[in-house]
Amino acid sequence: MALESRLMKHIDLLIERYPSLEPIKQDLIDAYLIIEESYEKGGKLLVAGNGGSAADSEHIVGELMKGFKMPRKVSSEFADNLKAVDEELGTVLAENLQGALPAIALDGHLALTTAYMNDCEPLLCFAQQINGFGKPEDVFLGISTSGNSKNILYASTVAKAKGMKIIGLTGAKDSKLQEFADVCVKATNTETYMIQELHLPIYHCWCLMLEDKFFGEE
Q1: Stretch 138-161: mean pLDDT, rounded?
Q2: CB 3.0 to 4.6 Å from 154: which of 48, 74, 127, 144, for a disulfide?
Q3: Alpha helix ranges (H) inside 2-124
Q4: What are the strands, taking DSSP E only, across 118-164?
Q5: What CA–CA distance (Å, rounded) separates 216 from 172?
Q6: d(Cα 126, Cα 214) in Å, to the nearest integer?
Q7: Do both 56 and 38 map to the same domain?
Q8: Are 77 and 139 within one domain?
Q9: Domain that holds residue 82
Q10: In a 3-state reduction of DSSP, which class is residue 90?
Q11: Which conformational region is residue 42 in: left (phi greater than 0), alpha (psi within -120 to 50 degrees), or beta?
């Protein structure tokens, strides 16, 4: 796959605003293309991280599952289908629903995660969810500033065994996660909070590109 030229503006703006990311430009593109291909095949994005990276996971899902910059109006065909089910309710839905790119943050689901951590091995909590949710056409995005978070590595092992693609989002240092990942995007810093400060514009860029690709005009 190749990146559509109209989407390159998002990468260019990211690099203009954060020049330190220039050395990982191709990795940024390659990771985006993996997610794009997954969505084109009817797949979904599974995201996990710890602490601030857990918050980033939720943030990413929020940008993908509803409008980010665009309104993402539902198609006229789907609007008609909604109204055919119930005219009053369907009209409200047709006017307010937004197009969604399916994504799940694995840090949530408190009943499931606490039950699993109590009954089984706590570090396998994300892995269990990959086992349940994951399909070959899906992508696992593992966020870890060190790239060595054990629960992310266990989840990556399950994802790879299921034939899923894996994207790592880490800091600049080499890590175990990059050995699992099809693409490892290594934010160009080694201090945890500085890595996290770069992760946000990186995934915002991906979300903008995905929205432009699937809901923008050619």
Answers
A1: 98
A2: 127
A3: 8-17, 25-40, 52-64, 76-85, 87-96, 110-119
A4: 139-143
A5: 33
A6: 28
A7: yes
A8: no
A9: 71-99
A10: helix
A11: left
